[in-house]
Amino acid sequence: MIELPTLGWQSIVILVVFGVSLLIATYCTYAERVIAAFLQDRVGPDRAGPFGLLQPLADAVKLFTKEEFFPAGANKALFIMGPCLAMITALMSSAVIPFGNVIQFGNNVFNLQGIEVNIGMLWVFGIVSLGVYGVMIGGWASNNKFSLLGAIRAGSQNISYELAMGLALIAVLMISGTLSLREITLQQSAAGEWHFWNIVKQPLGFIIFLVCAFAETNRTPFDLPECETELVGGYHTEYSSMKMGLYLFAEYVNVFVASAVMSVLYFGGFNFPFQYELRDWFVNSQGWELMSAQNLISVLGLLGLFGKIFAFIFFFMWVRWTLPRFRYDQLMRLGWTILIPLAIFNILLTGGLILGGIIK
Asked: Which regions span the lipid bilayer (predicted)?
């Protein structure tokens, strides 16, 4: 068997992943409005195209055609670099996510993953950590006190919640024994049953990770860096045109990546219940070749993973239109005095359960 994640195939997968990430981010703006309208019992976007489906394209045209604006005294190079860095880091973190199992054609095996590295979890964590520099650079280069305050809030918020998120990941690492996202996913595929997923073994760790994901993506109730009532628009107050659009789309790409990572780490990734029984049924009852049946399972797993991702994205938006924004002191207190101690307790509890042979 010749395994071909060749450079060409990997490049194609990475480009497709980047394109899908941007497409989902674009239509997340539409979904945000539709879900908000549903929750608030009003009519959402319905003018641009049938059911308002062309609204994201209209927004993109508006952003591209708006006037370019540079504040007086701004550092132009850094002012442009900020939103670019925010978007680049958001897209790079999606390159190592395993979106599906392998697909085989003859002797060629294709991996539905851009880059397979044995430190995939550290890759995502490191790239996400770099994303705050895009916010910090943009806020500082704007030469605006409100932008600078928003950037400082973003930096302190990310530092505070990355600690708890990292501690939550350590518990998953203790169970899986690997940093590879593909290996973590495959370990949850035993017998194809959902009770082998890490959400069963790590419910507390998942809750900590979920809360930290809201803070890392600057989503309500943790959107203090762009708090309109206090900071006008936050770190992107002085931005216009597509530079503003890059910041907005980067936030939705981060929501997509966070949803994908949570699906992979805690909800089995591309695994779904009874996948092996379904494969054997196609082979034994329908006379399919094993390779064809496995390819079908891989495609269904890909669709299942995106179903989990969309469920998380809906949850992100549901929370935004349901919960009020925290005060800044409440946000910091939650991160340092509640989530970090809980994450440390979760590590100790997981270690005890592993030593006792209760979880493996």
From this structure: 12-30, 77-100, 120-142, 163-182, 194-215, 252-276, 296-319, 331-359
50 SS3 class: helix
pLDDT averaged over every residue in the chain: 86
Alpha helices in 177-202 (DSSP H): 181-187, 198-201
d(CA 130, CA 247): 14
What are 37's two structure tokens? 């309208």
Q: How many CA atoms lie within 13 A of 328 on its CB side?
A: 16
pLDDT at 1 (0 to 100): 37
Do 74 and 141 meet the contact criterion of CB atoms below 8 Å apart? Answer: yes
Give the pLDDT band (50/70/90) at residue 50.
confident
- CA distances 208 to 33, 95, 122, Å, are 28, 24, 18
251 alpha carbon, distance to own chain's centre: 9
Over the stretch 69-118, which tens digit does the pLDDT of each residue have? Answer: 888 888 888 888 888 888 899 888 888 899 988 888 777 778 888 888 88
8-state DSSP, 110 = E
For residue 191, the model assigns a pLDDT of 53
Q: Is there a contact between 127 and 250 (Cβ–Cβ < 8 Å)? A: no
Residue given tokens 């399919």 in the structure block: 288
E strands, the chain, are 2-3, 103-105, 108-110
Angular region, 219: left φ>0, alpha ψ -120 to 50, beta rest:
beta
Give tens-digit pLDDT for 168-178.
999 999 998 88
